[in-house]
Amino acid sequence: MDVDYLVIGAGPAGLQLGYFLGKAGREYVILEAGATPGTFYRTYPRHRRMISINKPHTGWSDPELALRMDWNSLLSDDPELLFTRYTERYFPDAGDYVRYLIDFAKAHRLPVVHDCPVERIEREDDGFAVHASGGRVFRARRVVVATGFGRPYLPPIPGIETTEPYGEVSVDPDDFTDQRVLIIGKGNSAFETADNLVEKAAVIHLAGPESIKFAWRTHFIGHLRAVNNNFLDTYQLKTQNMVLDATIQDIEQRDGEYLVTMAYARRDKVVRLAYDRVITCTGFAMDGSIFGRTCRPQTAIHGRFPALTHEWESVNVPGLYFAGTLTQVRDFKKYTSAFIHGFRHGILALTRVLDQKYEGVPWPAAQLPAEAGAVTDAVLARLNRSSALWSQYTFLCDLIVPGPGGTVGYLEEVPVDYARARGDRSCFAVTLEYGAGHDAIDPFDVAVGRAWEADPGHEDRYMHPVIRHYRNGEQVAALHLAEDIYNDWTSEDEHRAPLRSFLDHFLVKATACRPAKAART
């Protein structure tokens, strides 16, 4: 089979990409190892409660606005294919998500080949040969890996291979009755596991060298979520459970128990503690075993992720792309590329990148008069409605490019790094962002927050619009508009007038300096 694109994985990323490739008229196929889409969600999260919010009741009639509070739906033109129609649970069950993905693939007749695990990918002529089970070989000009995580990440600790991994350990609390349990890790999977055991285990310790980071403070939703932190009560209220700031140095099995050596982070002391069970919740990594010798991608962050360009292409294997949670290397633990409500918009941008690069299709662009009032109206209309700029804050921007004849091109939902790499002589990037240092203080400390707000040197901490002017990829000016409790950025004094003044100053100059040929969009 010869296709333009071969997509590996029929999870949310693979299905989302397939939808957009089909809509663009590209020849493609999706290979899925499991019997249905969404194989990952048949196992994870282990305790079946997802932490991607599902909010059917927003009070908004605008479906674009509603997507801001819907972290699970994929993008499509079918208003019936929203995950909010499957359940009203705020933290939904993973089984419901599998049903949704199956229905999404069926409704759009996506060409998914099931029960087709990929065994090896190799370069071949001007494309790739993808070898799958049963001796099947698929050939494609380009390959997009959307498999998500394929293996657990285990830090280099002697003896860690003897422990029970998060993906395999029993989820029945009765199996831990009166046992001493060590959980290695301090992320959501570790706390989810601990919370499941508090009624049965005698002692539960969580251990890791880094401080706990709370999502409510950092605004990174992969940090510890409130829905998983009940265990902290059992620690601070002294009910035999503890969170240890420590580096695990060695794990040894002896006489039916584990002896674990750890060095405390808060003081110079090494201890050796005994446990009945040790569970590793240390995260996941890409499974690189599918890449043959001729197309093995460079990796980053302890080998957990592929190293990617601003176009989501492997830095060393041309034509090998990635989609979904594996693309988080571009904004690791900062924004939302790791999560469905982030990467669904990133995948739309990826298809536009591919169209422009290989098909000669320019990025869609509306044409506006190069007049501050008209551009201000367009910018504020987008800021007050867009789900992409909201969900992929800081990472995606709307791009305004001065063109010929007193016009500007308005490009929606462009990755900021991609926008800067275009090298436009002059352009304006519109983003939603949290203020610099937003995670530096406890958001619930009233006195500290008041002092922050009173300091004119600080940007607004909460989400607010930012407009940056670039020349040849370098920032020359920026305007931060005021935050608003309702995220309504339409005030004449606080939003419209400052933006109009900023554009009136810089846009006129940019347009005047624009050469006669058309803007590249």
SSE topology:
Blueprint: E1 2-8, H1 12-23, E2 28-31, H2 63-66, H3 94-107, E3 112-113, E4 118-124, E5 127-132, E6 137-145, E7 151-152, E8 164-165, E9 180-184, H4 188-197, E10 203-208, H5 215-218, H6 231-236, E11 241-254, E12 257-264, E13 270-275, E14 277-280, E15 284-285, E16 299-300, E17 305-306, E18 320-322, H7 340-359, E19 365-369, H8 372-383, H9 387-391, E20 396-402, E21 407-415, H10 416-421, E22 427-433, H11 446-454, E23 464-471, E24 474-480, H12 492-512
Parallel strand pairs: 1-2, 1-6, 2-3, 6-18, 8-14, 9-10, 9-14, 10-11
Antiparallel strand pairs: 4-5, 5-6, 7-15, 11-12, 12-13, 16-17, 19-21, 20-21, 20-22, 22-23, 23-24
Helix pairs in contact: 1-7, 8-12
Structure notes:
This protein is of the alpha/beta class. The chain is built from twelve helices and 24 strands. The strands form five sheets. Strands 1, 2, 3, 4, 5, 6 and 18 form a seven-stranded mixed sheet that branches. Strand 9, helix 4 and strand 10 form a beta-alpha-beta unit. Helix 1 packs parallel to helix 7 and helix 8 packs across helix 12.
